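Support request, please re-run this one:
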Amino acid sequence: MTKNTTSTFSLPDRDGLEARFGVRVASMLGERAQSTAPDIGERLRFAREQALSRAQAARRQVQLATAPVLVSRGRSAALGSPLGWWFKLGSAAPLALLVLGLAGIAHVHDKAQIAAVAEVDAALLSDDLPPDAYTDPGFAEYLKTTRE
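Re-run finished. Output below.
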């Protein structure tokens, strides 16, 4: 009883097997080519040359298909007309607006802090207590006891 087994090879193993098979076939053909008639040998040589030229043409087509493609927007982009500068300026405009917006936010924040400090200063100066009383440790204890 024979078992039917199939084996699968990984890609590197398969490539190695194919290469070894190709070498064996080429060596057998080389041995047999010396014992063939001259007209058959000439036809085989011509077929080999055609196959090589077709393989080279196919490689060139693959290289051309995978080559990067340069796309221009016509004459204006190729000559560097002012339209290209306007496009660059338009691309930089959002960044400039962002920087101006952040500077405006910082300015408004600084103004709000100045107003808050001025309000505290005005409250301190208009109060009945002298400013030195606020730095006295006993005053902090007094505030804690009076609030409870």
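The mean pLDDT is 78. The first helix runs from residue 11 to 33.
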